[in-house]
Amino acid sequence: MSDNDLLPILLTIPFVASAVLAFVPVHARNLAAWLSGLSALAALGITAVLYGSVRGGNVVRNKIEWLPSLGLDFDLRLDGFAWIFAILITAIGFLVVLYARYYISKDDPMPRFFAYLLSFMGAMLGIVLSGNLILLAIFWELTSIVSFLLIGYWHQNAAARDGARMALTVTGIGGLCLLVGLLIVGHIVGSYDLDRVLAAGDQIKGHALYLPALILILMGALTKSAQFPFHFWLPNAMAAPTPVSAYLHSATMVKAGVFLLARLWPALSGTYEWFWLVGFAGVATLMLGAYFAIFQQDLKGLLAYSTISHLGLITTLLSLGSPIAAVAAIFHMVNHATFKASLFMAAGIIDHETGTRDMRKLGGLFRFLPITATLAMVASAAMAGVPLLNGFLSKEMFFAEAVETHADSILDRALPYIATLSGAFAVAYSLRFIHTVFFGPPPRDLPNPHPHEPPHWMRLPIELLVMVCMIVGIVPGLSIGPFLDTAVIAVLGTEPPEYSLALWHGFTTPLLMSIVALIGGTILYIMLKSYLATCEDGPPIFRHLQGQRIFERILVTVSWKWARWLEATAGTRRLQPQLRWLAGLGFVAAFLPLYMGGFHARQLSFTGPDMIFTMIWAIGSFAALGAAFQAKYHRLAALMMLGGAGLMTCLTFVWLSAPDLALTQLLVEVVTTVLILLGLRWLPKREERIDESVTFTARLRRLRDLGIAVACGVGMSVLAYAVMTLPVPDAIANYFLERAYSEGGGRNVVNVILVDFRGFDTLGEITVLAIVALTVFALLRRFRPAADSLGAPEQQRIQNAYDDARPERSEGDTVRDYLLVPSVIMQWLFPVIITFAAFLFIRGHDLPGGGFAAGIAMAIAFLLQYLAGGTRWAEDRLRILPLRWIGLGLLIATATGMGAWILGYPFLTTHSRYLEVPLIGKIPAASAMLFDLGVFALVVGATVLILIALAHQSIRVYRVKTPDMPAPQTLAEEKI
Amino acid sequence: MELVLAIGIGIMTGSGVWLLLRPRTYQVIVGLSLLSYAVNLFIFGVGGLKKNAPPILPYSGVANPATMTDPVPQALVLTAIVIGFATTALFLVVMLASRGLTGTDHVDGREKSR
Question: Cβ contact (<8 Å) for A748 and B100?
Answer without folding.
Answer: no
